[in-house]
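# nightly structure sweep
# worker-07 picked up a monomer target from the shared queue
# config: single-sequence mode, recycle default, output format = structure tokens
# input follows
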Amino acid sequence: MLMDFYHKTGQLEKARQMAQTILDLKPKIDSNEVRRYKQLAQVLLTRS
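# output follows
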């Protein structure tokens, strides 16, 4: 995932922006994959 790449390469601001964008999205379909990405984004924001 691109958000993880930014985080691992030290581009923390880009990673935070992408995580916030993911959390702000209102998907038309609520699937397990969507919930997983939102959960990962939330973890990234709280840890950084």
